[in-house]
Amino acid sequence: MNPVIALATARRVLDQLRHDPRTLAMALVVPTLLMVLLRFVFDEEAAFDAVAPALLGLLPFLVMFLITSVSTLRERTSGTLERLLTLPTAKLDLLLGYALAFSLVCLVQVALAVAVSLSWLGLDIAGPLWMLFLVAALDALLGTALGLLVSAFARTEFQAVQFMPAVVLPQVLLCGLFTPRDQMASFLEYLSDVLPLSYAVDAMTELTRHVGIGADLVAQVSVIGAALLLSLVLGAATLRRQTA
To answer: What is the rounded distance in angstroms from the CA atom of residue 136 to the CA atom of residue 175?
Structure first.
């Protein structure tokens, strides 16, 4: 791994985002706007407090998955990625550069969503604020890593978008947002146990119910981090050097 190449890649991606205000606005603002919308959809504060922690981890995950997968695919279809891979550059260096650039976007995105949720929307948490921010940021980074991974298997931007119902929606349905995981059919509960978004939702919910940092929260954050790293490694292993 060459950190110089990774940092150079991150600077290039950030410069591209700076010249793409629509994508940047979607990445930074959309999760916060959706949280505001859902606050008034649920109307009652108790109902919002019940689902808001899961949504605070889920929405950045969804947005970053979509933006990362499409942006990376655009690099391949334009030939930029292919030209970079003809240089003595490791695939992991490129993916780490992408991940680093999008991680900075994630931090700003999550900071806005958390700040608005805790202040204007009145979300109450029992756990430490810094841990809430950390878990939400890891959730967004997990979406970024999975987006980088699936972009290796798509040839067009439309195909990249098609991965959302195949990869993301099953995790949304089984993460415990709609019904507790232990109340699902047994085979679905077992399946949810291997899906990283389940641990992201569990960690956010844990922070609203318990003061301090318990063993369960540490385990959930560890699983999220491991899934993030595994997605980056698999993305580097499957990244093609040629467009077609």
So the answer is: 15
Q: What is the pTM of this model?
A: 0.86
Residue carrying structure tokens 């900075």:
104
DSSP 195-228: -HHHHHHHHHHHHHH-SS--HHHHHHHHHHHHHH
Q: How far is CA 201 from the centre of its chain?
A: 12
Domain spans in the chain, listed from the N-terminal domain onward: 3-238
User: pLDDT digit string (tens) for 87-126?
Assistant: 666 777 788 888 888 888 888 988 899 899 888 888 888 7
Can you tell me the distance from the alpha carbon of 171 to that of 165, in angstroms, rounded to the nearest whole number? Answer: 9
Question: With contact defined as beta carbons under 8 Å apart, do 76 and 224 qualify?
Answer: no
DSSP of 142-190, one letter per residue? HHHHHHHHHHTT-SSHHHHHHHIIIIIHHHHHHTTSSS-GGGS-HHHHH
- Residues 76 and 39: beta-carbon distance below 8 Å: no
